[in-house]
Amino acid sequence: MSDIFENDIDSQNEDLSALEDDDGVASGDESGIVYPGELYKTRLEYSCEGLYASVPKGLKELRAGDYVIVPTLYGKDLALVLGKSEHPVGLRQSDIVVIDRKASESDVAQYQECTRKEKEAFAICEEKIAAHGLPMKLVEVEYTFDMNKIIFYFTADGRI
């Protein structure tokens, strides 16, 4: 049976490197990527999404459990510091965010207020969906950290 498979192998040395994705990184050499001196792993509180973050000059060393303010797609947001990242793997420079500042007690209180308002908005939105007979299911409601926007996540079989 092995004779059948050996006949399928091409004896020529084909260059298969053209089939591989390079993702803009030199193969086997990451000398073009410069990581900041201190890199931290953080987690966004609202979505549990992990982010790598660098510390700006003038900010003291952070510890696991500290809260920081980081830029996200929707603006500034609260993130929990999980700890230092000693050996990042598969990380591009564009994946690293810069921490704006350490969160104050008022920032944490503002996040808790957002969470409380999200629960109220969820109940109101479910009432509106039922009142209008919309064929959709509300999954989550999210206030942005600055409370300027509300994002509603829902599912539906078709376009609403």
Computed CA radius of gyration, to the nearest angstrom: 24 Å
Note the gap between the termini: 57 Å
What about the largest sheet? 6 strands, mixed
Arithmetic mean of pLDDT = 81
Number of helices: 2
Question: Uncertain segments of ≥5 residues (pLDDT<50)?
Answer: 23-31
**From the helix content, strand content and strand pairing, which structural class follows?**
alpha+beta
**Element-level helix/strand string:** HEEEEEEHEE
- Order of adjacent strands in the largest pleated sheet: 5-2-1-4-3-6
The amount of helix comes to 10-25%
Shape: flat
Q: What is the tally of beta strands?
A: 8
- Beta-strand portion reads 25-35%
Report on the architecture of this protein.
There is one protein chain. The protein contains two helices and eight strands; from the N terminus they run H-E-E-E-E-E-E-H-E-E. The chain is flat, with a radius of gyration of 24 Å. It has helices spanning 2-8, 105-132; strands spanning 39-44, 50-54, 67-72, 75-84, 96-98, 101-102, 136-143, 150-156. It is of the alpha+beta class and 160 residues long. Strand 7 and strand 8 form a beta hairpin. The model is unreliable at 23-31 (pLDDT under 50). The strands form two sheets. A six-stranded mixed beta sheet has the order 5-2-1-4-3-6. A two-stranded antiparallel sheet has the order 7-8.
